[in-house]
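Supplementary Methods, section 5.1.

A reviewer requested that the exact input to the structure prediction be made available. We therefore reproduce it here, unchanged from the version used in the analyses.
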Amino acid sequence: MNKEQEKRPFIRVLIATVLGILLLITIVPRAKCIYDLNQRKANLESEKDSLTKQNAQLEKAMQEANSPQNVEKIAREQLGMVKNGETIMVPVLSE
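The structure derived from this sequence is encoded token-by-token as follows.
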């Protein structure tokens, strides 16, 4: 009976060790997946912030491009348009 009592703690330790290893085998891949997803989330949030800033800049540029002063400037400089009562002056290039 003395030998059986000595075997019982060994068997318990062995079973506990096997269960611990099985738990680690199932937990480690899930923990790595969670870590990877957190990293991806951080990257996507950073990208979102960057795109939000870029969108704000583009909105501002679009508002400036549609302003009456800008439309008039483009009409005068690129299309050669003039207001009523103004005369157009064309510079003559000498050779």
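Residues 12-76 form one domain. These observations are discussed further in the main text.
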